[in-house]
Amino acid sequence: GDSVTQMEGPVTLSEEAFLTINCTYTATGYPSLFWYVQYPGEGLQLLLKATKADDKGSNKGFEATYRKETTSFHLEKGSVQVSDSAVYFCAQGGSEKLVFGKGTKLTVNP
Amino acid sequence: GAGVSQSPSNKVTEKGKDVELRCDPISGHTALYWYRQSLGQGLEFLIYFQGNSAPDKSGLPSDRFSAERTGGSVSTLTIQRTQQEDSAVYLCASSLDNEQFFGPGTRLTVL
């Protein structure tokens, strides 16, 4: 069945460090891909998305590129801030349902 | 505009009792979803409503779980004879296309 695998956390970085959170998926078709973020005490928010191969989603300095050949959608940010501390979820799907990875907790220290 | 709202925000119940969780989707959104977020299982899909079509119930974990969506808007998730393993945060989402907007969730604790 469809699934999403993302790197296990937790991840701890210093401010201004480079961030990569790996995400791969298995799917029978060509799903849309998403990164959601959950800040402490808050609900899930869409961070970025890509709907077809080679699309790049970007928001708040975060980027991810839909790679069909490697079935991946890795999240990157060039310089993290303390305010980026949150749990990040990779997801695949479309209009019917989302399949989520288990989440990666990121802590950014000043 | 208003986002997805859920009530109650917290619910504590005793094992064996029934509970009802409510979701108010964003006005005009035709699709509504329920998910469950628990420490052991992560985020799991439960059920999906789209317009007047029959719901996709493939994610419901047992026949103790059911959901309704009245008038194409508000939805209620009902858990009968709650068990301790039902303790989780229940999330509702709605969408107009393929972007889902999530509510703040209901934290259910079964004692």
Topology of helices and strands:
The complex is a heterodimer of chains A (110) and B (111).
Chain A: E1 3-6, E2 11-14, E3 19-21, E4 23-26, E5 32-38, E6 44-50, E7 56-59, E8 62-65, E9 75-77, E10 86-93, E11 98-100, E12 104-109
Parallel strand pairs in A: 2-12
Antiparallel strand pairs in A: 1-4, 3-9, 5-6, 5-10, 7-8, 8-9, 10-11, 10-12
Chain B: E1 5-7, E2 10-13, E3 19-24, E4 31-38, E5 42-50, E6 65-69, E7 75-79, E8 88-95, E9 101-102, E10 106-110
Characterise the protein shown here:
The complex is a heterodimer of chains A (110) and B (111). Chain A is an all-beta fold. Chain A starts with a strand and ends with a strand. In chain A, the strands form three sheets. In chain A, strands 2, 5, 6, 10, 11 and 12 form a six-stranded mixed β-sheet that branches. Helix content of chain A is 0%, strand content 52%. Chain A contains no helices and twelve strands. Chain B has 111 residues and is mainly beta. In chain B, the strands form two sheets. In chain B, strands 2, 4, 5, 8, 9 and 10 form a six-stranded mixed β-sheet that branches. The mean pLDDT of chain B is 93. The A-B interface holds A 32, 36, 42-46, 49, 51, 89, 91, 93-103 and B 31, 33, 35, 42-43, 45, 48, 50, 56, 59, 91, 93, 95, 97-105.
Helical content class of chain A: under 10%
Largest sheet of chain B: 6 strands, mixed
Number of strands of chain B: 10
Order of helices and strands of chain B: EEEEEEEEEE
Largest sheet of chain A: 6 strands, mixed
Class by SSE composition of chain A:
mainly beta
Biggest interface goes to: A-B, 22 and 22 residues
H/E order of the elements of chain A? EEEEEEEEEEEE
Strand proportion of chain B: over 45%
**What is the alpha-carbon Rg of chain B in Å?**
13 Å
Number of helices of chain B: 0
Arithmetic mean pLDDT of chain A: 94
Beta-strand percentage range of chain A? over 45%
